[in-house]
Amino acid sequence: MSCYFLRSVRLSGHASASCAHIVLVLLMLSVTSACTHLQTSSGARADMSSSERIDEADRLYSRGRYSEAHQAYLDITRDYPSFSYAWFKLGNTSIKTGHADLSVACYERAISLDGNDQRYWYNLSLAHLQLAKQRAQAALQRNPQADNSQLIQLIAQIDAAGQL
Predict the structure, then answer these.
(1) Is 58 in contact with 89 (CB distance < 8 Å)?
(2) Distance CA 61, CA 134 (A)
């Protein structure tokens, strides 16, 4: 309708351009307002949905259903990549399912989003211990005939330190 209005109004030179600019600004303001409204209302629904989804993932985790919880947290991080708690819990499920290397990346992502949560730092440290233990065990298996006393001692120290 505004385009029809601009075509039908015949103003001379500068007045025509001013009218076109006013209509264009009004059109942009109405589009911006509509987009803001849509973003706010869908954002409210998304927050409610994310809250329900995280509650369900937490329930799966607390019941020991780590693989299912892992998938739920993974889906949440895909939809809400700035949600540090979901990255933290994805790291926890990664450890529980034997993927310490993945857990390190998840904890580091959580820390990059919220470096003030000490749980994220603590679990990152534990994940590094778990990785060190896994690598020491892999070295033992690779060359069982070698003098592995240092590796055996390291594994014992990691076990004592982290009760992993």
Answers:
(1) yes
(2) 23
Is the distance from CB of 97 to CB of 61 less than 8 angstroms?
no
In degrees, rounded to 5, the angle at the alpha carbon of residue 158 between the alpha carbons of residues 135 and 138 is 20
| Most trustworthy range by pLDDT among 29-38, 109-118, 137-146 | 109-118
DSSP helix/strand/coil, 43: helix
Please write the tens of the pLDDT for every residue from 7-45: 333 444 444 444 443 333 333 333 333 333 333 333 433
What Å distances lie between residue 113 and 39, 56, 69, 82, 88, CA to CA? Answer: 22, 22, 21, 7, 10
Nearest to 60 by CA among 50, 51, 71: 71
Domains of the chain, first to last = 2-162 (1.25.40.10)
Q: What are phi and psi of 105, to 5 degrees?
A: -60, -40
pTM of this structure: 0.66
